[in-house]
Amino acid sequence: MNNKITLPKLVVIGGDAAGMSAASKVRREQPEREILVFEKSRYTSYSACGIPYFISETVPEVEDLIVRSPEEFRNKYNIDVKTLHEVTAVDTENKRVKVLDIGNQTEFWEDYGQLLIATGAKAYCPDVEGYGAEGIFGVSTLKSGIKVENFIEYKKPKTAVIVGGGYIGLEMAEALLIRGLKVTIINRGSHVMNTLDPDMGNKISEAIRSLDITLYCNEGLKRFKTEDGKVTGVISDNREIEADMVILGMGSSPNTGFLKGSGIALGVKDAIKVNGRMQTNIEDVYAAGDCTETLDLVSKKHTHIALGTIANKTGLVVGSNLAGENITFPGAVGTAVCKLCKYEVARTGLRERDLEKLEIEYVAASINSKTRAHYYPGAKDITVKLLAEKNSGRLLGGQIIGEEGAAKRIDVIATALTYNLTLQNIIDLDLSYAPPFSPVWDPVQTAARHLIKQI
Question: Is the pTM of this model over 0.85?
């Protein structure tokens, strides 16, 4: 008598961080299960965060960013990865997905037993005149990064305009500077890095200008100037800027447009609503990565955070649950770091405007210190800002700006936020000290000591 249980076929939409983390986990736990992955590009399991460093040639080969190729997944892990296949619709009632074979432009329906949606996020750009011209790039996938590299290599642009001063905008500014281009950034807000408070964002804006980058704030994009189908300039609210190429750095939005009519519930920014096990509101349909909502552990509100760390973690969680385990993703505090030439930027938790919106009484303080003992060679400037609840002293957020050795200190603040520590708890931490690494009081603890006086 054969008592073997037949496992449901798993179909995964999206072959990058979240999707392949999940598929790999399922394969390790269930070697006989049928796993089918649809990926619209040629690439799987790559580091999107490394794209600016490939463009700058700091990372010499695109293959260095690829963790596992589609061939490796098929031949070594028995995961059937179909690249250049885009899922265009999901029929949850009949448990099937509609797939476009990009190579031969044919469509077909594929049945699933369980479905994982891991389609990530896409670069945002308003629908303005000239948007489709040659030389305008969003940088969110490896394919887009390769297009930028090829354009620089073969078209030899001299000038570049970056629209938006977020993480990708600043990292691409560094990459293009290294490649010898004259770089201009236009930013709709009063300062770059909208994820920072204005006082800290203004510090980064000043740093950008010191790097021979032209920065215009309080200027939105109106349209692109083109000639013979190629971009030649950017028209902002106040000026016209010459541009041989344009990088879109205005943020991203969840790639969920194809779910219209599926019945799958969407939330913030049309990100997919999931519970802690990464289940959607539809039975046997899961989601993970940049296309999903994330619970903010500080505000206790759902938000959309597009970060590789969260994508990999949620991919592992959903893969574990699909393989029969019972694991939950608790949420995140929005920790992120960014490098622009010699400057490092880091943030975690809530900003002042977030706290004002939530009507939480808070206190804030920032300090200037050094990354090492002041007498030790190579000590660099660092500014740490902390936000805490006014009565309890519970930490609510933190931001750091400095040079080498500054940014990773944000991890102490992120840990404190995750476990609801107070300013006094941070002061009491037994952090490491030696002159080459830190002053005797780490700058994070110095900021906590300064702020606790207001509690």
Answer: yes
